Amino acid sequence: MQETRRRVLAALSDGPVTGPSLADRLDVSRAAVWKHVEALREEGFEVEDAGDGYRLVSVPEYGEAAVAFGLDADVDVEFHDALDSTNARARDLAAEGREDVVVVAAEQTGGRGRLDRDWSSPPGGVYASLLVRPEVPPTSAPAFTLAAAVAVAETAREVGVDAHIKWPNDVLVDTGEGEKKLCGILTEMEGEADRVSWVVVGPGVNVNVPAEDLPETGTSVQQLVGAVSRRAFLQGVVERFDDLRGDLDAVLPRWRELSGTLGREVRVETPGGTVEGEAVDVEFPGTLVVETDDGTERVTAGDCEHLRPQ
């Protein structure tokens, strides 16, 4: 969103403001103020022109300006009605030298998960990819996946969904019919031996997705507690992630509180074979510690299966 338009919107949200006073405050012409107000209306903002000035009445449910409005995170928003993949678009932006961008799509047509698995992305979900350039070594990159999982799980709990995290990148809900998937996270990075060039973290969350559009193994916020504002949900995720990316030491304590894996019997398929035992801890930047019959195993990557109820 243009900076001037952002300031116009902020002024409108504070209460009625006349065109002349807004023009003086922003050091623009009255005609420019009118054009910005009309542009906001075209984007779905309801702006009332009462006798005491312009007043913001309502905000659109979704869209670039809607997501950016009131977002307490230092990121730019790029919104698309549909994309093959928000992660692919974020990678393109990284190649252009961009940073601190959240790419959002109302619908993904070619979403994918870890290990190149297909990921269903029907309308109603929150599909976003955050492009950041952290000053950390590549070995710290897994912490950003954990940070995104924390951000999603905390936001889900805020709207009444009792979500928990399955190592390394899934947010699940125990529906009474077993654990079902609410969110998957795909993290990609590029870097050199001693530093990360960029990290793209892409959560795909089933927010307002009806039951008939979900796979058998999935669930959604709408199915569990009713429809919520996708705009507010995405803002909650982005703000929490933005907070954690600047304080990676805070990630693990919050992840442990939300974990559905720790204390469980698990089976992890790793590139080196199967690890089975009790998941007892997670260590920075995201290593799962498993107590097996043969001793302690530390797993940095793999597919985790929960073997018994929590």
Biggest beta-sheet profile: 7 strands, mixed
Uncertain segments: none
Order of helices and strands: HHHEEHEHEEHEEEEHHHEEEEE
Determine and state the CATH class of the largest domain.
Alpha Beta
* Shape, per Cα inertia axes: elongated
- Rg from Cα: 21 Å
CATH superfamily of the largest domain: Bira Bifunctional Protein, Domain 2
The second-level CATH architecture of the largest domain is: 2-Layer Sandwich
Architecture overview:
This protein has three domains: 3-58, Winged helix-like DNA-binding domain superfamily/Winged helix DNA-binding domain (Arc Repressor Mutant, subunit A, Orthogonal Bundle), CATH 1.10.10.10; 64-258, BirA Bifunctional Protein, domain 2, CATH 3.30.930.10; 265-306, SH3 type barrels (Roll). The relative contact order is 0.11. It is elongated and about 75 Å long. α2 (19-26) crosses α3 and α6 (142-158) crosses α9. It has a seven-stranded mixed sheet, with helices on both faces. With 310 residues, the protein is an alpha+beta fold. It has helices spanning 3-13, 19-26, 30-42, 64-68, 86-95, 142-158, 221-225, 230-245, 251-258, and strands spanning 46-50, 53-58, 76-80, 101-105, 126-132, 163-166, 170-174, 179-191, 196-205, 265-270, 273-283, 287-292, 295-299, 303-306. β1 (46-50) and β2 (53-58) form a beta hairpin. Helix content is 30%, strand content 30%. It is built from nine helices and 14 strands. The protein starts with a helix and ends with a strand.
